[in-house]
């Protein structure tokens, strides 16, 4: 029987987690494709793109501080994709002023984080603070869908929940949690563990409250985050 070493398991998991995370990032292409077709963003929110850009930018900085090549690689792709999604949203939204204010807010946060991490003489302290910020943003990002739980419970219907995205979140966060455990990094473990738990709760709702419509979930391009 072939037994893999911890290093081999870590490398396999890093490859798998990177692949599934990039696939998850690419779901934004479907949403932007719909914007191009309709020449409008409709009532959709920019929050997924803005929070994605913020999260990937912060994790990218954390990856550089920790010299974690896997974290660096996946978040370079994430920053590029979410920047493209934000640009697309800006082109087609009628509320450009509000959107640009939101972009300015996250860019300010990213800039201050980078400046602090550069001027802080203690690299360990810098990585801890940046990791804490990444962790906080990650928890907020994963917890945001919980605002719909009350509606699901009251209506006993899961039509408002995007099943494919929730399922993808479950597998992605599970892989990153295990990866964080293997490299003994609490800042990677904590938000992904919570994300995995929250995704599990949402998946359980599909069993308790099955969809009442013929369509089991909303299309990606009509999801209201």
UniProtKB/TrEMBL annotation:
Residues annotated as transmembrane: 12-32, 44-64, 70-92, 99-117, 129-149, 161-178, 190-209
InterPro entries reported in the protein's UniProt record: SWEET, SWEET_rpt
Gene source species: Polypedilum vanderplanki (Sleeping chironomid midge)
A Pfam family annotated for this UniProt entry: MtN3_slv
Keyword Hydrolase: no
A molecular-function term among this protein's GO annotations: sugar transmembrane transporter activity
Main location: membrane
A GO CC term assigned to this protein in UniProt: Golgi membrane
Keyword set, alphabetical order: Cell membrane, Golgi apparatus, Membrane, Repeat, Sugar transport, Transmembrane, Transmembrane helix, Transport
The protein, known as: Sugar transporter SWEET
Functional summary from the UniProt entry: Mediates both low-affinity uptake and efflux of sugar across the membrane. Mediates sugar transport across membranes.
Entry keyword annotation includes Cell membrane: yes
Sequence similarity: Belongs to the SWEET sugar transporter family.
Subcellular location(s) of the protein: Cell membrane; Golgi apparatus membrane
Lipid bilayer topology: Multi-pass membrane protein
